[in-house]
Amino acid sequence: MENTFKYYMVRNRALPEVLLKVAQVNNLLSAGKVKTIREAIDMVGISRSSYYKYKDDIFPIHEKIQGKTITFVMEMEDRPGLLSNVLRVVAECNANVLSIHQSIPVNHIAMITLSVLVLPTTDGVEELFERIEGAEGIHNFKMVSAE
Fold first, then answer.
1. Which residues have a Cβ under 8 Å from the Cβ of 60 and sit 6 or more positions away?
2. Which end of the chain has fewer CB atoms < 10 Å from its terminal CB, N or C?
3. What does the pLDDT look like over 71-121, one tens digit per residue?
4. Separation of alpha carbons 147 and 145, rounded Å
């Protein structure tokens, strides 16, 4: 049987504490803030076996989607300047807008499909998601693909 991997995007608040701590250990190690795994796991408070069980299974989203196209779908209030604000966020995070499709607004809500290219210079994909989702007038924000 072929070993296939499935990836899921999960908000950090939905993750068990042990996975969040494994991610903290990985961050400490990659940033050079600690020299040994022992030092890092002691700092965050998990066992060595927990770390080794999950160490290759959790990573920041930016490590896996650089150079990929991400497509978002969102409902947006039909008010002047709101789409411009979202595009400004994309530009400020150094991502590249590839396409925009906006439906005709119904009951003052428009459906927007936005495809962006995540570049090696893109600043914090997590920040990009959070800033778009939290922008004024945005409803039902979803990432629908990363290719």
1. 23, 27, 125, 126
2. N
3. 989 999 999 999 999 999 999 988 899 999 999 999 999 999 999 988 777
4. 6
88: amino acid identity, one letter: R
Spatial distance between the Cα atoms of 139 and 131, rounded to a whole number of angstroms: 13
What count of other Cβ atoms lies within 10 Å of the Cβ of residue 37?
A: 16
Two tokens, residue 82: 């709101």
Angle 82-92/125-133 helices, nearest 10 degrees? 170
Buried b (16+ CB within 10 A) or exposed e, 11-30: eeeeeeebbebbbbbbebbe
Which residues have C-beta within 8 Å of that of residue 137, sequence separation ≥ 6? 76, 77, 79, 82
**Cα 10 from Cα 42, distance rounded (Å):** 26
Please tell me the predicted confidence (pLDDT) of residue 58: 83
